[in-house]
Amino acid sequence: MTRKAFTVDEANGLIPVIADVFREVDAHRRRIREAAKKLEVLELLWGGALRDGSNPDHAEFARRREDIDRAMRSIQSAVEHGIIARGLRLPAGGLEEGLVDFPTTYQGRWVYLCWHVGEHDLRFWHETDAGFAGRRKITDAQRREMGTGDPSLADDELDF
Fold first, then answer.
1. 52: Cβ–Cβ under 8 A, 6 or more apart, which residues?
2. Do 127 and 107 form a contact (C-beta atoms < 8 A)?
3. Is the N or the C terminus of the chain less surrounded, counting Cβ atoms within 10 Å?
4. Are 114 and 123 in contact (CB under 8 A)?
5. Strand pairing of 99-106 and 109-116?
6. pTM (global) more than 0.90
7. pLDDT for 72-99, tens place per residue?
8. How many CB atoms lie within 10 A of CB 11?
């Protein structure tokens, strides 16, 4: 499978879409926290008896569990369609920390353009093995070159 090498401009064009994905994920996380708090109260009141279908709060318990499951599925769908399907990468902890890597080429090798929630445009990049701590500022010369090289490099060079 050939990976897309994003130019800085192409990646910048996707930032509003990616930022929307993270806002959607945050909204679903709030729903999960709210439902989990309500479940916690119910479980404190009833313990294991809450799972019994004859329990007066069982329907509320089931509804809150479904709220959590639905929000989890929505997060997964948002990430799969909004980030992964676009050829982007969530590094380890990326969903929690708001990090996305855009594969690109630079000087004949794959590297990542690195975006963090709250940044208005791409200003950093890093080697495929460097991670967030290895981020470097994109220079004007790099901005012009990134993503314009031959993307037919070996796909196993990318950590997807």
1. 58
2. no
3. N
4. no
5. antiparallel
6. no
7. 999 999 999 999 999 999 999 999 999 9
8. 25
Which one-letter amino acid corresponds to residue 25? V
The string over 125-148, giving b where at least 16 C-beta atoms fall within 10 Å of a residue's C-beta and e elsewhere, is bbebeebbeebeebeeebbebbbe
Residue type for position 42: L
pLDDT digits (tens, 9 = 90+) for 6-26: 999 999 999 999 999 999 999
Contact call for residues 112 and 5 (beta carbons, < 8 A): no
pLDDT confidence band for 143 (50 / 70 / 90): very high
What is the predicted pLDDT for the residue at 50?
87
Closest by Cα among 102, 66, 64, 80 to 24: 80
Phi and psi angles of residue 19, each rounded to the nearest 5 degrees, phi first = -60, -40
Distance between start and end Cα atoms, the chain? 12
Contact in structure between 12 and 19 (CB atoms under 8 Å): no
Burial of 68 (0-12, 13-18, 19+ CB in 10 A): middle
